[in-house]
Structure to design on (351 residues):
């Protein structure tokens, strides 16, 4: 147990753990978590704990990383409703994509045929926000408080006006 | 004699590892890096496994299983990674 | 034998570095793939060095399981990327 290489191998573990902690994007952190699991299995095997190494490889590297990838995939997304005829054009969507990239969200445009179905989708929590054209400008409505705060600081009023709609008591503030 | 041969093969495997892994540091596309890595990870590791087989012939079933696992899974993984990473760049 | 293991640890440091500094997800996946293969090989070399069957079996299982998990993860990440567009 006193061979020199053991010390080097054990030193890899805090190194990769530090790498994992310094990641900001959740998906990148997941991949580094798998990497940490591989190195942890190596350390366990070197120190003679074969069963722990096997468990780390099966659970830490495969199961937990896959499950967390599915969790990240289904949670970190901004579903944005839009009318069918003004889909995917204009400065607003370009800006929204940039904001989403900044906050490591995925941006998903969902088109609806008319205004009523947009509002119904917001009420049914199918989408987090939607935009529709008002006169010459866009009008964006969101039901998520945090999203309202982010968009308020990032988007200028010349591009879109912004409204937060509280669904719990459904009072509209304009 | 066998001992020297096995050491030599181990060193050759390490050289393959170094050669393939250094391609990760270059500024090339993912597919080029994947090629270097599959060479190093499959060929280098196979050479090392043969060296271990020469060193301890007593454990041949385990090492042969490792050799087969390595060849099958690593080639398959190379294909899967190439497919998944190149499909995205076609959309861009 | 000791020197060979030290050289293996040095090769392990290169993908660690690239996995940390490149900001592209597929670069990180490549680093993960090569590290999971290299650690399994290192466990196997150590098992031969110590003449320990138990660790050797673990090495083979880690080798195949790590590759299988990587394929699953690669497909999941590909689906994620497609949704973004």
């Amino acid at each position: 147990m006193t061979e020199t290489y053991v010390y080097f191998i054990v030193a890899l573990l805090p190194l990769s753990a530090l790498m994992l902690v310094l990641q900001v994007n959740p998906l990148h952190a997941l991949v580094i978590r798998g990497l940490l699991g591989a190195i942890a299995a190596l350390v366990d095997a070197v120190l003679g704990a074969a069963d722990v190494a096997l468990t780390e490889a099966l659970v830490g590297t495969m199961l937990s990383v896959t499950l967390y990838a599915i969790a990240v995939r289904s949670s970190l997304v901004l579903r944005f409703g839009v009318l069918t005829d003004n889909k995917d054009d204009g400065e607003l969507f370009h800006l929204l994509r940039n904001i989403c990239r900044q906050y490591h969200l995925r941006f998903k445009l969902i088109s609806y045929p008319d205004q009523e179905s947009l509002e119904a989708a917001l009420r049914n929590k199918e989408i987090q926000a939607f935009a529709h054209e008002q006169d010459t400008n866009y009008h964006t409505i969101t039901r998520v408080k945090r999203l309202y705060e982010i968009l308020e600081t990032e988007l200028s009023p010349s591009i879109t006006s912004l409204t937060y709609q509280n669904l719990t008591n459904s009072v509209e503030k304009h | 004699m066998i001992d020297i041969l096995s050491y030599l093969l181990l060193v050759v495997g390490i050289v393959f590892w170094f050669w393939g892994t250094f391609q990760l540091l270059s500024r090339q596309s993912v597919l080029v890096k994947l090629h270097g890595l599959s060479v190093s990870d499959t060929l280098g590791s196979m050479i090392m496994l043969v060296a271990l087989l020469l060193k301890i012939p007593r454990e041949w079933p385990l090492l042969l299983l490792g050799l087969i696992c390595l060849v099958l899974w690593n080639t398959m993984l190379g294909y899967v990674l190439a497919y998944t990473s190149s499909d995205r760049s076609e959309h861009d | 034998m000791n020197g060979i293991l030290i050289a293996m640890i040095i090769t392990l440091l290169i993908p660690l570095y690239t996995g940390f500094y490149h900001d592209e997800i597929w670069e990180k996946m490549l680093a993960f793939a090569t590290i999971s293969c290299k650690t399994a090989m290192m466990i196997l070399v150590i098992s031969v060095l110590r003449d320990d069957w138990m660790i050797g079996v673990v090495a083979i299982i880690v080798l195949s399981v790590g590759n299988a998990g990587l394929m699953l993860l690669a497909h999941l990440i590909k689906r994620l990327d497609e949704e973004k567009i």
